[in-house]
Amino acid sequence: MERKGRRETGRVAFIISFGLIVVCICFCGCAEMGAGPGGYSNQSLFPGDVTSIYVKMFDNRSFRRGVEYELTDALAKRIEAETPYKIVSNTDRADTVISGQIVSIAESVLTSERQTGRALEKQLQLRAVVDWKNLKTGELLIDNISVSATATFSQWQNQGFAYASALAANNLARRIVELMEKEW
Q1: pLDDT digits (tens, 9 = 90+) for 49-77
Q2: Which of 88, 148, 147 lies closest to 123 in space, CA to CA?
Q3: CA 48, CA 16: separation in Å to the nearest integer?
Q4: Beta-bridge mates of residue 145
């Protein structure tokens, strides 16, 4: 008789603990509406009060010319493709303006040939400072934030500086678009 009572108590304890586990699993991924940070949401990652952006030509403080055109073009294409915003060609029609300057373009050797010392693989680092201003409110959404990106290339594979600068500009544009997202 005593064994039967222990079994019943064990079953009840198992059912209760299993039920609690199921309830915890069901509610651990839910976000309360309007509850601030935490949980999951289907809201946009980008500020909702912005609909259009004017992309100002980036300045170039380095000695390498032409990279500012690649970066500006890559940024405009990334904004159009990955955000809900529309690129406009006039600041009068824009809600916001994004601008910046290329601060440095550095080239370094990653691997070199053992006998001759010639570079086999190089890395290009592109660094820029970015601003994003809301023209309606005057608020700086991004205020002088430094962003950098790299690209590797090899002249032995017919990849020169032009290839690496285009790749680094595209990577930097991706990072700038990531900066445009709201804080989680």
Answers
A1: 788 999 999 999 988 888 999 999 999 99
A2: 148
A3: 45
A4: 130
pTM comes to: 0.74
The full set of domain ranges for the chain reads: 52-179
Q: Provide the residue type at 138 as one letter.
A: G
Is 95 within 8 Å of 134 (Cβ atoms)?
A: yes
* CATH number of this structure's domain 52-179, picked from the four choices 3.30.160.150, 3.40.1180.10, 3.40.50.720, 3.30.70.2190: 3.30.160.150
Q: Are 126 and 72 in contact (CB under 8 A)?
A: no
Q: Given the structure tokens 């990072």, which residue do they identify?
A: 175
SS3 helix, strand, coil % of the chain, rounded to 5? Answer: 35, 30, 35
Q: Are 128 and 58 in contact (CB under 8 A)?
A: yes
